[in-house]
Amino acid sequence: MPIEIPVDKWPGSVREVTLGATSAEGGTRTHSLTVGGEKTLPYLQFEAPTPHKPVIAVEIYDIKPTDWSPLLLEAWGAVMNDPGQWAAAAEKAGAEMIVLMLNATGAEGAPLTPNGAVAAVQAVLKSSGLPLAVFGPGQAELDNLLLVAVAEATKGERLLLGICEDKNYRTIIATAMANGHLVSARTAMDVNLAKQLNILISDMGLPLDRIIMDPTTGALGYGIEYGYSVMERLRLAALQGDAMTQLPMLVTPGYETWKTKESKVGEGVPESWGDWKRRAVNWECMTATALIESGADIVVLRHPESIQRVQAVIEGLMAPAAA
Amino acid sequence: MALSGIQIYKLLPQTNCKECGFPTCLAFAMKLAAKQVELATCPYVSEASKSQLAESSAPPIRLVALRANGHEVKAGNEVVLFRHEKTFYNRTGLFVRVSDASEPAQIQESAARMSAYAVNYVGMDLSLDGFAVQADSSDPARFEAAVAAVRAASKLPLILVSSSPQVIEAGLAALAGETPLIFAADAGNWEAMAELAKAHKAALAVTGATLDELADLTEKIKGKGVEDLVLHPAASSLSSALALNTQIRRLAIKKNFRALGYPTIAFPHSHEAAVQAIAKYAGFVVLDEFDPASFYPLLVLRQNIYTDPQKPIQVQPGIYEINNPTAESPVLVTTNFSITYFSVANEVEGSGFPAWLLVTDAEGMSVLTAWAAGKFDAERIAKAVKSLNLADKVSRKRIVLPGHVAVLSGELEGELPDWDVRVGPREAVDLPKFMKQAL
């Protein structure tokens, strides 16, 4: 008695979005990356093959972060003092994309200037051929000042610029439109908020295939279930044909997990938490895995060892359906 | 076709005897329609109604419980494919594999250590559910000794792993009166395994590479009178494991396909594969090794995935005294989302500094989420300060806002003019440093 396997037929699909431009495409990247395009719930290969594998991005800073876990400082070492070297090291460790975070203040404690931001971005572009995202410090005025300068100086590179939030998106959208870049749209773990921001952005005239959405998430133990379910619901809405949810998703398990106590510190914690370093890397890899299973197209990680482990998960999920 | 609550009600005795535990026959009928109870709970239902209801009354995924010494691990009875549709009910049972290749003394020592493991997560003690004893030796006597060694060290339920009925029988001999899980029946040994399961009232796992093979086996075994079955879809990759588990869950829930209406078991060989098994429907998970550094995050993941999305875990709003605060101690503000509360309370407690922790009613949301939703603002904080008469508790009126809502400080100064409003760190983990330096 052969069993009839129930297969979901969906009217909609996720849009394809291409990050980075090669010299032939008007940029300087050694290759571009396409994400999205899914026609099924995550990795149900028996319904339709997943068109593009999810991308592992690595988060770096223009100046060495002062509040990172000692485990991360030890893992990256001296390259953290130079964004170009850091990006090259991340590429060597297996990253497929770089996310450059701009700090509000430069090395001498003075506010970061547009020139300083452009210099950091150009150092990264020079040392690594990977597609690049550049995110501002998260202060509206400063973000706008820095990102406009970066966008103009890198015209045509198809950078992913962020962060667009409902309180601050117009300037970033305008400069992305004028200079051939993409934007990352961040909302706080809510399907309707995500949808609403995408509407606001596309109303300004930026084509939907130049938007990545960041529905945000919590780390394992710190609210991951909210992010997990919001992502499942966004994917379901996209497949059901809701155009304003049909965008690939970026999430930041590295940022979320490395601020938790479990990852950040090794002393004064219960013995039942186990070995610090193994626990910390597990926390990041397991958070990333759960988010990939719920529909993430880009996961931004921090620890170099996590890259290979999450890559193995992606290979397993991309394996074709058994005949 | 499934019957509605009203259709089911017409087939019940309609006496409202309450012996099923529900106030009326109609209430019981509604629960039956939602597949949350078994028809057998009604002592008076007629045989004719029974056969008519049999199809629609059983839950789409049978509840299977492993039991030992008062411990119980349940799987099944799930009703949805996605947790946001309702909730996932029976948390994945987490087991650790123990091989009979080790010496009994060594097994006993390690089982005792693992069995005693407990870790506290937001006020709950989480621990291991049981052991899977694997017959690598193929020697019945050695296997029985290994099972006895685990049992001497731990009271937790067991899974017995061997394809040989003789070896399984030897293991069962050491577990009188318990309900272990036999792993597993296959196309070659199923009759003997079914006999053993029946004789010892054990649950029986069924293994097969395809759904057709699994369904064929469960029907045959059910015909022998064994119904507490667990499916083991043998997968070769993460994607095939995801496909098979999704197909089984869909067939059971959407098609009411009885032959696969059982919980599943998985043997993941990496931490990430264990993550997928917990998120994607496994009823029981057997881990290759026990390491707190991976077991703790898996326990937490299971807790998160199985949290009822309709009921965020909240703590009571109010003022919490930490480290015996005095009139000189600062007031720290946070929300009543349990994870937020425990993160903050643990850090303050660990810092050794006394403080008043003001937990506002943010409808169970975290600081940033509550702020974005308008449930955590200066007005609400000020109202809580006033209604709890905090001005009478402290002489130095210092109130500390979470760093994520630094924007509220101006407004709060307006609401509480005689208070010194401070902005604390964004993350709880940085509180001890902040309290030492800034307070």
How does this model look, in words?
The complex is a heterodimer of chains A (323) and B (439). With 323 residues, chain A is α/β, with parallel strands linked by helices. The radius of gyration of chain A is 19 Å and the shape is globular. In chain A, helix 4 links the parallel strand 5 (132-135) and strand 6. In chain A, strands 8-7-6-5-4-3-10-9 form an eight-stranded parallel sheet. Chain A has a two-stranded antiparallel ribbon with strand order 1-2. The two termini of chain A are 18 Å apart. In chain A, helix 3 (114-127) packs across helix 4, helix 4 packs parallel to helix 5 and helix 10 runs parallel beside helix 11 (304-318). The longest helix of chain A is centred in the last third of the chain and has 18 residues, at 276-293. Chain A has eleven helices and ten strands. Chain B is an alpha/beta fold. Chain B is 40% helix and 19% strand. Chain B has helices at residues 5-11, 25-33, 47-57, 104-116, 140-153, 165-173, 190-200, 211-223, 238-255, 271-279, 292-305, 338-351, 367-372, 378-387, 390-393, 409-415, 431-438; strands spanning 64-68, 71-75, 93-99, 118-121, 124-127, 130-134, 158-161, 181-185, 203-208, 229-233, 264-266, 282-287, 318-322, 331-335, 355-360, 398-401, 420-423. In chain B, the strands form four sheets. Chain B has an eight-stranded parallel sheet. A five-stranded mixed sheet of chain B has the order 13-15-14-16-17, sandwiched between helices. A two-stranded antiparallel sheet of chain B has the order 1-2. In chain B, helix 4 packs parallel to helix 5, helix 12 (338-351) packs across helix 17 and helix 14 runs parallel beside helix 16 (409-415). In chain B, 47% of the residues are buried. Chains A and B meet through helix 7, helix 9, helix 10 and helix 11 of A and strand 4, helix 8, helix 9, helix 10 and helix 11 of B.
